[in-house]
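Q: Predict the assembly, please.
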Amino acid sequence: MTGIMEAYVAYSIMLGLLFYHAKTLFSEIKSLELELEELDSSSSKEED
Amino acid sequence: MGSRESLGTILTISGLSIASMTALYALFEAPSVSGGWEAPEAYRILYFHAPFAWLSFISFTLLFIGSIMWYTKRSEKGWIWFQTASDLGLIFGLGVITSGPIWGSVEWGTPWDWGDLRLNTFGLLTAVAMFLVLSRRSQPDTSATRDTLSSVGLFGFALVPISALATTWYQKRHPEVLITGSEDGSAGMDDEIRIVLILSFLILNILFAGFVILSNHRYLLASKLEILKSELDEGLI
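A: Predicted assembly structure:
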């Protein structure tokens, strides 16, 4: 057994964790920005 | 998009792209090792495993700083650092405690050695990060919760030097740090392997910087949103 299959599995997991975290960061930032914009616009309408 | 967020995005996207290419190089192009290895090709895991361990130690150092800032100044910025660092400590810690046992299972014949100090303290460190992330998400965000979690974060940091120096203090099964060669000169690292490993460290550090910037931005936005919502609620009342 050379262990190359195990190396493939380990890299898939480690790269998967990195991509998953990046995807979570981008999607959460986007949704928070949208929510902030909505709140900002609704509060400015109320002021008007 | 602010300049800091743009920098975080650029570092993250370029870090991910180059890290993927490095992984391919590590798997298919890096030289093979010879000698008394049970599974010589499994050593390739090292190129990401070691930088992941380093970055989880950095995460816990940031967690320590965030905890201190929260305790001493009740600083919102400190709490943002705490949240970012606990997330990153979990991500990089999980990478280490999954890739390490995969290597151990083929090289040692067992995925885990309960007598090895580094393995066990590192496992505990990752468990602390998981506890912090899950608690943050499940508990109400009050000063009392933050105090409790910060104290756990401080305890977690105490494990960092123990885990980092465990192979020097109590050498058991976990391989020594061989970048500069062993003390008696009997072991060391092939030049090409060393270069790929150093490159891997650099790239993953760049990616880590991108993650830190974006994560801090995310928690800053969440904090602003909470303040805005409470102001709106007060206005309605």
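Helices of chain B lie at 3-28, 46-73, 76-107, 117-138, 143-169, 191-236. Chain B has one domain: 3-224.
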